[in-house]
Amino acid sequence: MSENSISSGSSRLYGCGLNANHFVAKTQLNSGRRFYKCPRFDEASSCGLWEWRDEEMPPHVTMLIHNLNTSLKSVEVEKNYLKKMVANLEVVVSAERLKTEKIMEEVEGINSAKLQKVARMEAQLQNMKLFIVFSWISEYFECWSAELAFEWCDRIADLAAECHDWMDELAAEWCDWIAELAAECHDWMVELDAEWCDWIVGLVL
């Protein structure tokens, strides 16, 4: 009798001297039923041992076990399919992760370059602002200096004119005073000469 089967851990020693392991049938009629068979059952030297370990089960129980085994196989197939899908997804996810990391590196490089460009532009803008401010201050001081110089030129010219008039007046006053002093000195010398002449004549006489 040939049965689809799986081996279990239990064994039994038979006439050939070998342990006859028991198996579990997977056929529709005897699904889940255990049996023993010689390890050399398919060889010429086999003792031919093959016997059921379990009693025959009712048909509905056998059918239920068969259906459960069939469902289990379907679940195993689906599980293997899902494992394969997960493995494929892991490969895809890994590839996408590498792409994402590469894109992030490129984006970071672009952002770094943009930040550097923005920093340079801000520095240039600041320099332009300073240049405009200094230009305005310089222009303001130039205008203020020109106005101040013009104003001081006018003041100096006025002062020179006033000094010229004052010097003319002072010179005229000094000329009059010197003329008066010279006249007084002349009169005083004439008087002094007359007195000295009288005093000398008195001494002689």
TrEMBL record:
<protein>
    <recommendedName>
        <fullName>GRF-type domain-containing protein</fullName>
    </recommendedName>
</protein>
<keyword id="KW-0862">Zinc</keyword>
<dbReference type="Pfam" id="PF06839">
    <property type="entry name" value="Zn_ribbon_GRF"/>
</dbReference>
<feature type="domain" description="GRF-type">
    <location>
        <begin position="14"/>
        <end position="56"/>
    </location>
</feature>
<dbReference type="InterPro" id="IPR010666">
    <property type="entry name" value="Znf_GRF"/>
</dbReference>
<keyword id="KW-0863">Zinc-finger</keyword>
<keyword id="KW-0479">Metal-binding</keyword>
<dbReference type="GO" id="GO:0008270">
    <property type="term" value="F:zinc ion binding"/>
</dbReference>
